[in-house]
Design a protein that fits this description.
Layout: E1 2-5, H1 20-28, E2 32-36, H2 47-52, E3 56-58, H3 61-66, E4 70-72, H4 79-84, E5 90-93, H5 102-110, E6 114-117, H6 131-149, E7 171-175, H7 179-190, E8 194-199, H8 202-211, E9 219-222, H9 225-234, E10 237-240, H10 255-259, E11 266-269, E12 290-293, E13 296-299, H11 309-330, H12 332-338, H13 340-344, E14 346-349, E15 352-353, H14 356-362
Parallel strand pairs: 1-2, 1-4, 2-3, 4-5, 5-6, 7-8, 7-10, 8-9, 10-11, 11-13
Antiparallel strand pairs: 6-14, 12-13, 14-15
Helix pairs in contact: 6-7, 6-11, 11-12
Length: 369
Protein backbone atom coordinates (compact mmCIF):
# COMPACT_ATOMS: atom_id res chain seq x y z
CA UNK A 1 0.00 0.00 0.00
CA UNK A 2 1.10 3.60 -0.61
CA UNK A 3 1.36 5.45 2.70
CA UNK A 4 1.83 9.20 3.07
CA UNK A 5 3.18 11.15 6.04
CA UNK A 6 2.77 14.94 5.73
CA UNK A 7 4.46 17.42 8.05
CA UNK A 8 2.06 18.50 10.81
CA UNK A 9 0.59 21.96 10.21
CA UNK A 10 -1.27 22.74 13.43
CA UNK A 11 0.34 25.59 15.43
CA UNK A 12 3.43 24.47 17.36
CA UNK A 13 2.87 20.83 16.46
CA UNK A 14 6.24 19.06 16.48
CA UNK A 15 5.13 15.40 16.51
CA UNK A 16 5.14 13.20 13.43
CA UNK A 17 2.72 10.51 12.23
CA UNK A 18 5.35 7.81 11.66
CA UNK A 19 8.87 7.50 13.06
CA UNK A 20 11.74 6.08 10.98
CA UNK A 21 11.53 2.75 12.83
CA UNK A 22 7.82 2.49 11.96
CA UNK A 23 8.59 3.30 8.33
CA UNK A 24 11.26 0.60 8.32
CA UNK A 25 8.76 -2.01 9.50
CA UNK A 26 6.16 -0.95 6.95
CA UNK A 27 8.66 -0.96 4.09
CA UNK A 28 9.89 -4.41 5.16
CA UNK A 29 6.26 -5.58 4.84
CA UNK A 30 6.20 -4.41 1.22
CA UNK A 31 4.63 -0.97 1.54
CA UNK A 32 5.73 2.35 0.03
CA UNK A 33 6.10 5.33 2.39
CA UNK A 34 6.29 8.93 1.17
CA UNK A 35 7.39 11.35 3.89
CA UNK A 36 7.25 15.11 3.45
CA UNK A 37 10.62 16.83 3.78
CA UNK A 38 11.38 17.78 7.41
CA UNK A 39 8.20 16.04 8.66
CA UNK A 40 10.11 14.47 11.54
CA UNK A 41 12.49 17.33 12.28
CA UNK A 42 10.53 18.66 15.28
CA UNK A 43 10.71 15.23 16.89
CA UNK A 44 14.44 14.93 16.18
CA UNK A 45 14.19 12.65 13.13
CA UNK A 46 16.25 13.72 10.11
CA UNK A 47 15.19 13.03 6.53
CA UNK A 48 18.22 10.78 6.06
CA UNK A 49 16.89 8.48 8.80
CA UNK A 50 13.67 7.99 6.83
CA UNK A 51 15.64 7.33 3.66
CA UNK A 52 17.78 4.73 5.44
CA UNK A 53 14.54 3.12 6.64
CA UNK A 54 13.40 2.78 3.03
CA UNK A 55 11.07 5.77 2.88
CA UNK A 56 10.94 8.30 0.08
CA UNK A 57 11.30 11.99 0.90
CA UNK A 58 8.93 14.23 -1.07
CA UNK A 59 8.96 18.00 -1.12
CA UNK A 60 5.42 18.96 -0.16
CA UNK A 61 2.56 17.76 1.99
CA UNK A 62 0.37 17.69 -1.08
CA UNK A 63 2.71 15.26 -2.82
CA UNK A 64 2.83 13.01 0.26
CA UNK A 65 -0.98 12.87 0.32
CA UNK A 66 -1.54 12.61 -3.45
CA UNK A 67 0.68 9.53 -3.63
CA UNK A 68 -1.13 7.82 -0.77
CA UNK A 69 -4.00 5.43 -0.27
CA UNK A 70 -3.41 5.77 3.49
CA UNK A 71 -2.36 9.05 5.14
CA UNK A 72 -0.98 8.81 8.67
CA UNK A 73 -0.90 11.92 10.86
CA UNK A 74 -0.67 12.80 14.51
CA UNK A 75 -2.90 15.83 15.04
CA UNK A 76 -6.18 16.65 13.29
CA UNK A 77 -6.16 17.46 9.59
CA UNK A 78 -6.33 21.04 8.39
CA UNK A 79 -8.70 22.15 5.64
CA UNK A 80 -5.72 22.32 3.28
CA UNK A 81 -4.65 18.75 4.09
CA UNK A 82 -8.15 17.37 3.54
CA UNK A 83 -8.08 19.02 0.12
CA UNK A 84 -4.96 17.03 -0.73
CA UNK A 85 -6.48 13.64 0.12
CA UNK A 86 -7.45 11.30 -2.69
CA UNK A 87 -11.11 10.39 -2.90
CA UNK A 88 -11.87 7.21 -1.02
CA UNK A 89 -8.52 7.17 0.80
CA UNK A 90 -7.96 6.44 4.51
CA UNK A 91 -6.88 9.06 7.06
CA UNK A 92 -5.58 8.03 10.49
CA UNK A 93 -4.67 10.34 13.40
CA UNK A 94 -5.95 12.12 16.49
CA UNK A 95 -8.79 13.81 14.60
CA UNK A 96 -11.07 15.19 17.36
CA UNK A 97 -13.86 15.84 14.88
CA UNK A 98 -16.54 16.58 17.49
CA UNK A 99 -14.44 19.41 18.89
CA UNK A 100 -13.58 20.92 15.50
CA UNK A 101 -15.28 22.74 12.69
CA UNK A 102 -18.28 21.20 10.95
CA UNK A 103 -16.95 22.07 7.49
CA UNK A 104 -13.97 19.75 7.97
CA UNK A 105 -16.29 16.82 8.58
CA UNK A 106 -18.30 17.86 5.53
CA UNK A 107 -15.11 17.90 3.45
CA UNK A 108 -14.23 14.36 4.58
CA UNK A 109 -17.74 13.19 3.69
CA UNK A 110 -17.66 14.88 0.29
CA UNK A 111 -14.47 13.02 -0.67
CA UNK A 112 -15.62 9.67 0.74
CA UNK A 113 -12.67 9.58 3.17
CA UNK A 114 -12.52 6.84 5.78
CA UNK A 115 -11.39 8.80 8.82
CA UNK A 116 -10.01 6.67 11.65
CA UNK A 117 -9.75 8.68 14.88
CA UNK A 118 -7.08 7.29 17.19
CA UNK A 119 -8.93 8.68 20.22
CA UNK A 120 -11.97 6.45 19.54
CA UNK A 121 -10.22 3.17 18.75
CA UNK A 122 -11.72 1.20 21.61
CA UNK A 123 -11.42 -2.32 22.96
CA UNK A 124 -14.38 -4.38 24.09
CA UNK A 125 -13.68 -3.50 27.72
CA UNK A 126 -13.85 0.22 26.95
CA UNK A 127 -10.10 0.84 27.07
CA UNK A 128 -8.54 3.13 24.45
CA UNK A 129 -5.29 1.54 23.23
CA UNK A 130 -4.03 4.54 21.24
CA UNK A 131 -5.52 7.43 23.21
CA UNK A 132 -4.54 6.16 26.66
CA UNK A 133 -0.74 6.34 26.21
CA UNK A 134 -0.97 9.96 24.99
CA UNK A 135 -3.34 10.80 27.84
CA UNK A 136 -0.90 9.30 30.31
CA UNK A 137 1.93 11.34 28.83
CA UNK A 138 -0.15 14.53 29.11
CA UNK A 139 -1.06 13.66 32.69
CA UNK A 140 2.60 13.22 33.56
CA UNK A 141 3.38 16.65 32.09
CA UNK A 142 0.73 18.47 34.13
CA UNK A 143 2.68 18.89 37.40
CA UNK A 144 5.75 20.37 35.72
CA UNK A 145 3.64 22.85 33.73
CA UNK A 146 1.42 23.66 36.73
CA UNK A 147 4.42 24.38 38.94
CA UNK A 148 5.74 26.84 36.36
CA UNK A 149 2.38 28.59 35.95
CA UNK A 150 2.15 29.16 39.70
CA UNK A 151 5.39 31.15 39.61
CA UNK A 152 5.22 34.94 39.92
CA UNK A 153 7.12 35.43 36.67
CA UNK A 154 4.31 33.56 34.87
CA UNK A 155 1.57 35.57 36.56
CA UNK A 156 0.86 32.96 39.24
CA UNK A 157 0.33 33.44 42.94
CA UNK A 158 3.89 32.41 43.80
CA UNK A 159 3.47 29.14 45.68
CA UNK A 160 5.24 25.77 45.59
CA UNK A 161 3.35 22.63 44.70
CA UNK A 162 4.92 20.83 47.65
CA UNK A 163 4.78 23.49 50.33
CA UNK A 164 7.49 23.66 52.99
CA UNK A 165 7.81 22.96 56.70
CA UNK A 166 5.25 25.22 58.31
CA UNK A 167 3.58 26.01 54.97
CA UNK A 168 0.69 24.09 53.40
CA UNK A 169 1.10 22.48 49.95
CA UNK A 170 -0.79 23.58 46.88
CA UNK A 171 -4.38 22.36 46.56
CA UNK A 172 -4.89 20.42 43.34
CA UNK A 173 -8.39 19.48 42.09
CA UNK A 174 -8.59 16.99 39.22
CA UNK A 175 -11.85 16.48 37.33
CA UNK A 176 -11.71 13.00 35.84
CA UNK A 177 -10.11 9.82 37.18
CA UNK A 178 -9.25 8.43 33.75
CA UNK A 179 -5.77 7.83 32.39
CA UNK A 180 -4.63 11.47 32.39
CA UNK A 181 -6.23 12.31 35.73
CA UNK A 182 -4.77 9.23 37.42
CA UNK A 183 -1.26 9.89 36.09
CA UNK A 184 -1.47 13.52 37.20
CA UNK A 185 -2.74 12.59 40.67
CA UNK A 186 0.11 10.13 41.15
CA UNK A 187 2.78 12.71 40.30
CA UNK A 188 1.20 15.62 42.18
CA UNK A 189 1.02 13.43 45.29
CA UNK A 190 4.64 12.42 44.82
CA UNK A 191 5.58 16.10 44.82
CA UNK A 192 3.78 16.64 48.10
CA UNK A 193 0.67 18.44 46.83
CA UNK A 194 -2.76 18.04 48.40
CA UNK A 195 -4.88 16.33 45.75
CA UNK A 196 -8.65 15.95 45.30
CA UNK A 197 -9.97 13.82 42.42
CA UNK A 198 -13.58 13.86 41.26
CA UNK A 199 -15.31 11.49 38.85
CA UNK A 200 -18.90 10.38 38.23
CA UNK A 201 -17.75 6.75 37.95
CA UNK A 202 -17.33 5.07 41.35
CA UNK A 203 -15.43 2.23 39.72
CA UNK A 204 -12.73 4.63 38.57
CA UNK A 205 -12.49 6.20 42.00
CA UNK A 206 -12.14 2.77 43.62
CA UNK A 207 -9.46 1.79 41.09
CA UNK A 208 -7.52 4.96 41.90
CA UNK A 209 -7.90 4.30 45.62
CA UNK A 210 -6.54 0.80 45.18
CA UNK A 211 -3.63 1.98 43.05
CA UNK A 212 -2.53 4.61 45.56
CA UNK A 213 -3.36 2.77 48.77
CA UNK A 214 0.25 2.39 50.03
CA UNK A 215 1.50 5.96 49.48
CA UNK A 216 0.13 9.48 49.82
CA UNK A 217 -3.59 9.34 49.14
CA UNK A 218 -5.91 11.80 47.42
CA UNK A 219 -9.35 12.87 48.54
CA UNK A 220 -11.81 11.08 46.25
CA UNK A 221 -15.23 12.62 45.57
CA UNK A 222 -18.17 11.80 43.32
CA UNK A 223 -18.50 14.53 40.69
CA UNK A 224 -21.84 15.92 41.78
CA UNK A 225 -22.24 19.60 40.91
CA UNK A 226 -22.05 20.58 44.58
CA UNK A 227 -18.78 18.69 45.03
CA UNK A 228 -17.30 20.20 41.87
CA UNK A 229 -18.27 23.67 43.05
CA UNK A 230 -16.62 23.04 46.44
CA UNK A 231 -13.40 21.65 44.94
CA UNK A 232 -13.12 24.46 42.41
CA UNK A 233 -13.45 27.10 45.11
CA UNK A 234 -10.40 25.94 47.09
CA UNK A 235 -8.15 24.76 44.22
CA UNK A 236 -4.86 26.46 43.48
CA UNK A 237 -4.69 24.32 40.34
CA UNK A 238 -7.79 22.90 38.64
CA UNK A 239 -7.25 20.13 36.08
CA UNK A 240 -10.05 19.48 33.58
CA UNK A 241 -9.44 15.90 32.40
CA UNK A 242 -12.97 15.00 31.30
CA UNK A 243 -13.06 12.75 28.24
CA UNK A 244 -15.98 11.13 26.42
CA UNK A 245 -14.64 9.15 23.42
CA UNK A 246 -15.84 10.65 20.15
CA UNK A 247 -18.02 13.31 21.76
CA UNK A 248 -17.67 16.97 22.60
CA UNK A 249 -16.53 17.40 26.20
CA UNK A 250 -19.34 18.40 28.57
CA UNK A 251 -19.08 21.71 30.42
CA UNK A 252 -18.73 20.76 34.09
CA UNK A 253 -17.19 23.99 35.42
CA UNK A 254 -19.31 27.09 34.84
CA UNK A 255 -18.20 30.71 34.64
CA UNK A 256 -19.55 31.47 38.10
CA UNK A 257 -17.54 28.55 39.52
CA UNK A 258 -14.40 29.98 37.92
CA UNK A 259 -15.22 33.38 39.46
CA UNK A 260 -15.25 31.71 42.90
CA UNK A 261 -11.61 30.62 42.61
CA UNK A 262 -8.81 32.35 44.46
CA UNK A 263 -7.15 35.12 42.42
CA UNK A 264 -4.34 33.97 40.11
CA UNK A 265 -5.18 30.31 40.54
CA UNK A 266 -4.60 28.09 37.52
CA UNK A 267 -7.01 26.14 35.30
CA UNK A 268 -5.52 23.53 32.97
CA UNK A 269 -8.27 22.32 30.63
CA UNK A 270 -6.77 19.37 28.79
CA UNK A 271 -10.20 18.47 27.39
CA UNK A 272 -9.83 21.49 25.10
CA UNK A 273 -9.11 19.34 22.04
CA UNK A 274 -12.70 18.13 22.42
CA UNK A 275 -14.10 21.59 23.10
CA UNK A 276 -13.11 21.96 26.76
CA UNK A 277 -14.91 21.17 30.02
CA UNK A 278 -14.63 24.67 31.54
CA UNK A 279 -17.03 27.35 30.32
CA UNK A 280 -14.36 30.06 30.20
CA UNK A 281 -11.83 27.95 28.25
CA UNK A 282 -10.68 28.64 24.70
CA UNK A 283 -7.79 27.05 22.78
CA UNK A 284 -4.31 28.48 23.25
CA UNK A 285 -0.90 27.63 21.76
CA UNK A 286 2.52 26.82 23.14
CA UNK A 287 3.70 30.26 22.05
CA UNK A 288 0.86 31.95 23.93
CA UNK A 289 -0.28 29.22 26.33
CA UNK A 290 -2.32 31.21 28.84
CA UNK A 291 -4.92 33.91 29.22
CA UNK A 292 -6.63 35.51 32.19
CA UNK A 293 -10.39 35.20 32.74
CA UNK A 294 -12.21 35.94 36.01
CA UNK A 295 -8.72 36.70 37.40
CA UNK A 296 -7.78 33.04 36.91
CA UNK A 297 -4.94 31.84 34.67
CA UNK A 298 -6.20 29.48 31.94
CA UNK A 299 -3.89 27.01 30.17
CA UNK A 300 -5.74 25.37 27.25
CA UNK A 301 -3.20 23.99 24.77
CA UNK A 302 -4.81 21.23 22.66
CA UNK A 303 -1.53 19.62 21.56
CA UNK A 304 0.13 19.73 24.97
CA UNK A 305 2.34 16.71 24.31
CA UNK A 306 3.84 18.23 21.15
CA UNK A 307 6.61 19.92 23.14
CA UNK A 308 7.95 16.50 24.10
CA UNK A 309 7.63 15.50 20.48
CA UNK A 310 10.23 12.75 20.31
CA UNK A 311 8.84 10.85 23.28
CA UNK A 312 5.26 11.47 22.14
CA UNK A 313 5.92 10.35 18.55
CA UNK A 314 7.66 7.17 19.66
CA UNK A 315 4.91 6.39 22.14
CA UNK A 316 2.25 7.07 19.50
CA UNK A 317 3.90 4.71 17.03
CA UNK A 318 4.19 1.97 19.64
CA UNK A 319 0.43 2.19 20.18
CA UNK A 320 -0.86 2.94 16.69
CA UNK A 321 1.43 0.95 14.40
CA UNK A 322 -0.43 -2.36 14.83
CA UNK A 323 -3.60 -0.67 13.52
CA UNK A 324 -1.77 1.15 10.72
CA UNK A 325 -0.14 -2.13 9.71
CA UNK A 326 -3.47 -3.95 9.75
CA UNK A 327 -4.94 -1.45 7.26
CA UNK A 328 -1.81 -1.48 5.08
CA UNK A 329 -1.32 -5.26 5.09
CA UNK A 330 -4.83 -6.50 4.45
CA UNK A 331 -6.70 -3.47 3.17
CA UNK A 332 -9.33 -1.46 5.00
CA UNK A 333 -12.25 -3.88 4.90
CA UNK A 334 -10.15 -6.83 6.04
CA UNK A 335 -8.63 -4.78 8.87
CA UNK A 336 -12.03 -3.60 10.09
CA UNK A 337 -13.38 -7.14 10.06
CA UNK A 338 -10.38 -8.51 11.97
CA UNK A 339 -10.06 -5.71 14.51
CA UNK A 340 -13.30 -4.61 16.25
CA UNK A 341 -11.37 -1.96 18.19
CA UNK A 342 -10.27 -0.36 14.92
CA UNK A 343 -13.81 -0.55 13.59
CA UNK A 344 -15.01 1.50 16.58
CA UNK A 345 -12.45 4.15 15.68
CA UNK A 346 -13.95 4.92 12.28
CA UNK A 347 -15.70 8.30 12.22
CA UNK A 348 -16.59 8.69 8.53
CA UNK A 349 -16.76 6.10 5.77
CA UNK A 350 -17.89 6.38 2.14
CA UNK A 351 -19.58 9.72 2.64
CA UNK A 352 -21.42 8.82 5.85
CA UNK A 353 -20.89 9.46 9.57
CA UNK A 354 -20.54 6.06 11.22
CA UNK A 355 -19.72 7.10 14.79
CA UNK A 356 -22.84 7.44 16.94
CA UNK A 357 -21.55 10.23 19.19
CA UNK A 358 -20.22 12.27 16.29
CA UNK A 359 -23.51 11.83 14.41
CA UNK A 360 -25.46 12.98 17.48
CA UNK A 361 -23.19 16.00 17.89
CA UNK A 362 -23.61 17.00 14.24
CA UNK A 363 -27.32 16.27 14.20
CA UNK A 364 -27.06 13.81 11.31
CA UNK A 365 -28.26 10.21 10.98
CA UNK A 366 -25.78 7.57 12.05
CA UNK A 367 -25.05 4.87 9.48
CA UNK A 368 -23.86 1.53 10.84
CA UNK A 369 -20.46 0.51 9.49
Amino acid sequence: MNIGVPRERQPDEHRVGLTPSAVERLVAAGHHCSIEKHAGLGAGFEDVEYEKAGGRIVYSGEEACRRAELVVKCSKATEEEIGWLNEGSVLMGYLHLAGGRRDRVDALLAKGITAVAYETIQNEDGSLPVQSPMSRLAGMMLPQVAGTLLQNDRGGKGILLSGLAGLPPAEIAILGAGTAGTAAADLFLGLGSSVTVLDHDLGRLRALEERLRYGPRPVLMVAYESNIRKAVSFADVLIGAVHVPGAKAPIVVTKDMVASMKPRSVIMDIAIDQGGCVETSRPTTHRNPTFLAENVIHYCVPNMASVVARSASQMLNNAALPFVSAVADGGLESALAAHPALRRGVATHRGRVVNARLAFHLGVPEVTL
